[in-house]
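Fold this complex.
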Amino acid sequence: MIRRQILTGGAALGATALSTTLASPAVAQTAPEIRWRMASSFPRSLDTIYGAGDHVAKRVAALTDNKFQIRAFPAGELVPGLQVADAVQNGTVDCAHTASYYFVGKDPTFAFDATVPFGLNTRQMNAWMQHGGGREVLKPFFDSYNIVSIPAGNTGAQMGGWFRKEIKTVADLNGMKMRIAGIAGNVMQKLGVVPQQIAGGDIYPALEKGTVDAAEWIGPYDDEKLGFNRVAPFYYFPGFWEGCLNLSVYINKAKYDELPQLYKDALESACRDATVDSMAKYDVQNPQALRRLIAAGTQLRAFPREVMAAAYKASFELYDELAEKNDHFKRVYDQWRAFRDAEYGWFRVAENSFDQFVYAMYAQEAQQRR
Amino acid sequence: MIRRQILTGGAALGATALSTTLASPAVAQTAPEIRWRMASSFPRSLDTIYGAGDHVAKRVAALTDNKFQIRAFPAGELVPGLQVADAVQNGTVDCAHTASYYFVGKDPTFAFDATVPFGLNTRQMNAWMQHGGGREVLKPFFDSYNIVSIPAGNTGAQMGGWFRKEIKTVADLNGMKMRIAGIAGNVMQKLGVVPQQIAGGDIYPALEKGTVDAAEWIGPYDDEKLGFNRVAPFYYFPGFWEGCLNLSVYINKAKYDELPQLYKDALESACRDATVDSMAKYDVQNPQALRRLIAAGTQLRAFPREVMAAAYKASFELYDELAEKNDHFKRVYDQWRAFRDAEYGWFRVAENSFDQFVYAMYAQEAQQRR
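Structure:
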């Protein structure tokens, strides 16, 4: 705040002294022309998730009268989608749009910036990030990578994915090959699953040929595009490893520090704008896609409670193991866990009881219409 | 989009032709100095809900290098809180920050812009407004009041309020005087309640003296400030008449149309920013406030299902009655109802099953800790 006053103090004075038909030099000083490249981790075909990064770029331009222009590039055009953290860290690109859990191979602490199994839902994640200390507790970690990470987009709770056969007990998971990555893969491994890392575009043939028995991706709208319903009949819910997926704009720290405060503000509001925008898009598209999938024969299945409970236990055992070995992980986890518990204590009251009731009434009405 | 290109085309050309140390006249043309006054419907003491309007004002200034300044005034300083729609319509003030359901006395259609009983939750409301056709379907209605309404802030699902005695059946509501307004009041009236319209500051003495038997306000954080826990022991949930409360920035249409596109963009992103920001603030503050209230003796109670079901039936009967008499209401209701049903069909799958499971595990763990 103090910094902002120093930077713009001159501008305000200058603007007052001059008429509005002649711009003050101070405005030009605080509004230099800047061109950035943004490497997305996503393909352009995913208009929702790629679109969130692109939305940030477009809003920044709109908010700065095109003075600060960010151009988004799909995964692979500047750097491969899973290497954008390196590219931002090294300054090869100015910024990126990604899901932080892609980088848990470097350090599992990255996952908290995106999602962890049985973690926060979208509202709770936004709360943690914006006013719950999340960004602050993650800062020293991201500093060590020369990255400034700003929340920018969310998918909401994801689906559990596509299964070639039904899952009735934990034993059914034993030896099952499933496309699932990162910490979620580690959790599933504790339940007997053989996790597979497969890029989005390669999932369909793997599922078709039976190279994998199951695959998780995102939710109805994105999954439908990749056609998984044609090669696996059972669509499970919920994706208990992704109660939401927070997306992030990564910015090279030195580049970020060079920005005038005006552009930092534009970037911040553009990212929050993208968070509202992308969630709204998903929430409009997913219901329609789910209806189409079901009409085309997809069979919706809830994970058995036994499976969820076993995965829950495995998840928190894993977090304890990771916290013991990794100081960054422990520091973030401790703060996050206390926040999560406080959120759950409140959300299960007004929010969840409202949702539960109206969904039950909806189900009853839908039943009657049949 | 076309309009934007026409407006800023000159600016882009000018900026390219000149060096960045001298600002182009075109920038000044698209960035005139503008000062607006915003009349809030809320007192400054409600830092959450008043704060959302104030946040819009501050972000607009930050995004325009203080060229476009909006000054927020608490309810009563410019106009009384419940008269801000008139003030914006007449151009007495440039803009306002309010909850549209305050104006259902003029026309019940206003309610859709805020919330209606058994309506949308926060995510669903954002989806309806931003990509679900909500703003479009409301536009002809707001046009008739010379108002441009932009969503700006949300409270989340509210609590059902403070009751001096327990509610076990619908019969317990008979003759009960409750501070509850608007469409929610009409619904409760169908259940035997005698609804009372009382301003926020007057609720405490009314509840203390027994002039009313019950009063609803917002949620733990705001309710705690007004001290209702000291005069009523039972705190009911959920506020089924407010699955969320969307707040709105009202702008005089002529004033809005005069804004350069740059400022319209700033206003739009500032409002979305406020939506993320205010919801995050509530979601951080409410859990803490609820814990304090319970520690101080407040007894949490869920509304009996019988009461909820009776209110649900009464609500949709009321909507049908209103739709028969009011074309605006009917047009908005028909579109809204189809959207709501589609949302419920999807949200009860991944989103709700995730929430249900983790809250159940939380409750089990909390039980074990005791």
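The longest strand of chain A covers residues 147-154.
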